[in-house]
Amino acid sequence: MDHVTKLTGLGKLTKVLRSPVAFSVLAGVVVGALFLVGTGADPLAAYGAVLSGSLGADGIGSTLTTLTSVLGLALALAVPLRAGLINLGGDGQLVLGGMAAAVTGLYSPLPAPLTVVLALLAGMAAGAGYAALAALCENRFGVPLLVSSLLLSYPAASFASYLARYPLKEPGSSLPQTRQLPDGVALATFGSSTVTVGLLLVVVAAAAYWFTDRRTAFGYEMRMTGLNSRFAAYAGVERGGLTLRLMAVSGALAGLVGAIGVLSFPYRFLDGSLTASGYTWTGLTAALLAGAAPVGTVLASFFFAVLQVGGLSMERTTEVPRELTQILQAIVIVFLAARLRFPRFSRDRDPDRNTDTGQAAQSPQGELV
After folding, report:
1. Is there a contact between 293 and 366 (Cβ–Cβ < 8 Å)?
2. The whole model's pTM is what?
């Protein structure tokens, strides 16, 4: 039995290592090491600086803070991606959610704890409503979701910028920002760190996504639409309604991240601060890497959060520019796309493969879990 168990475990490990995602990550690390060697740097020292700077005692707080935004937006974009829908309007939904939270926090007459809850709900409602507008553009007017979601981001960002620069601008400040939220209108932090309970909210959202994906009929419809939209439509899944619901959930999650950003330091809406770090595109990269799978999205988000925070430490300690971590992200996605587009030739020669049924051993999205 022990021998059989070892063989089974070895087979599972081999399957994981041969998966497109694992191959892409390992290939990115190897190519990154070659870049470092070519510039005369020590790959082991550089990667060691990334790990120590992001997971060490001085960096873990920054990594978890970054993870809050990256994971939140990765979940927001993974939800529609699971059904084959791409939401490129994360920035607009994020900004509107942050502005809605700021307005609620500034003008709510409720006590501070209730105002925080109300601000979070307002941010989610603003993001959900704006994302649903993109879905309506596709359902009613035939505008592709890819186009409508992306183009709607620009008026949203401009509107929020106008509010921060004129009607809601802090008097006497040279920065385009709103007034600071009242005392107590803020998310609680863990000790003296910058990590807030927003991380717990995002983790709860990830758990809800996993449960919905794996344990509900709606999750089954979502996955089947992503795998084969024509089959799902034949089975009775109404695509227009599904698109509207998924985009509303996606926008709500993006708006939640915006609200968390405003209710955290510096406790105000600062024009451009929510989108300057590019968390929306990092989240999309994480969702693509994981094939929108719930657990895989969490792991991929943590991987990219480590790269972002560790890249700064690597630049300080080894003088290797932090842009290397961005190159690693790009390489991982390129290899992943190549592996999914050009599968192993050995599969075509596998005599055990059931070619009559056409069943694939793996989801076409190449999901982690």
Report:
1. no
2. 0.88
